[in-house]
Amino acid sequence: MSEMVTNGPRGIDVHAHGVPEAFLKEMARSRFAGVEIEASDGRYVVTYPGGKPLRPCTGLMIDFTRRLRWLDEQGMRHQILAPWLDVHGQELPAAAGQEWVRSLNDALAEAVSSSGGRLLAHATLHLADPGAAARELERCATGLGMTGAMIPTNFPHGHLAQPGFDALWEAAQSLRIPIVLHPPTVAPSGCLFGGDMPDFRGLYGRLIDTTLTAARLIVTGIFDRFPDLQLVLVHGGGFLPYQTGRFDREYGDKLGGTMPVELVKRFHYDTTLMSAPALGLLIELVGARRIMIGSDYAAGPVERPGPKLTDALEVAAKRPEDREAILRENAEELFRVGAVV
Fold first, then answer.
1. Which domains does the chain have, with CATH numbers?
2. Using an 8 Å Cβ cutoff, are 67 and 119 in contact?
3. Cβ-proximal residues to 292 (8 Å cutoff; 6+ apart), any chain
4. Phi, psi angles (nearest 5°) of residue 107
5. Chain segment 124-144, per-residue pLDDT in tens
6. Taking a C-beta distance cutoff of 8 angstroms, is the pair 213, 232 a contact?
7. Which residues contact 324 (CB under 8 A, 6 or more apart)?
8. I need a surface site. Which of 171, 232, 238, 252 has the fewest CB within 10 A?
9. Looking at the predicted structure, is the pLDDT value of residue 316 above 90?
10. What does the pLDDT average to over 319-328?
11. Phi and psi torsions of 180, nearest 5°
12. Which pTM value belongs to this model?
């Protein structure tokens, strides 16, 4: 075991998933807004009105006890989790969607409350009405103690670079709440991977969706309007940090004198890259102070065997201060987790 984890769990995992079983049971009972939830043997299959059944919520996704043992094994003290993007309810109409995420946020806050402070929750926001989303973000921050939010890069109506979303960005900036941008299962890239390549949607499609959304936010001046806004890109930022030369060539004279390569460094990134060379390149491109540990925990019903979260970090980050920053310091500062004991 490495020196990084021998003195007890210390790291902070900022990218994980979990859906409170109590929420699923209540929504199955009430059939809220016409949503059907089929429950059987610890599996919950959600179907929105007029839609197809979603992937089942089961296993680690609804188990909030086993993850604490897993965190110990990984050298992680804290984990900040958000519901699977499938159950954010973006398919619902605006009013119903706001009520749905309000119940989901309340249930998640309750689910993590018995973890001794080790599990923390990202707020979920319904995006059909950006003003209402901003109000829910404020409620989650001031009433539920949430210090982050996770929202989809893509959703059924509109896109994040539209002017109407300035209300949400303003609220996030004012509240000092980082917004984690996470690609959903169904997104524009899906049309590229049909037929004989459906697995490529998760393998590559989500990286494309993150890249396009982040690039669109840059081009439309998100950081000019909101200089203190903190945005986090999961999965190492998709392809965004690694193609800045092309970005600079196409937009270098269109962004008021600031090159895209510099604006890419305004985002924060997680380590869900799954290899030390890739993480090393990300550190070189954006700097260790913009990167945090991410596990994508519960993306599947069971955790696949593999290297520990810190293994790639130990190889990729050559300086001890960089390893410490990525392991915990950056997340402590950004998400105001508090002192790690």
1. 3-20+59-335 (3.20.20.140)
2. yes
3. 12, 14, 232, 268, 269, 270, 271, 326, 330, 331, 334
4. -65, -40
5. 999 999 999 999 999 999 999
6. no
7. none
8. 252
9. yes
10. 97
11. -95, 125
12. 0.95
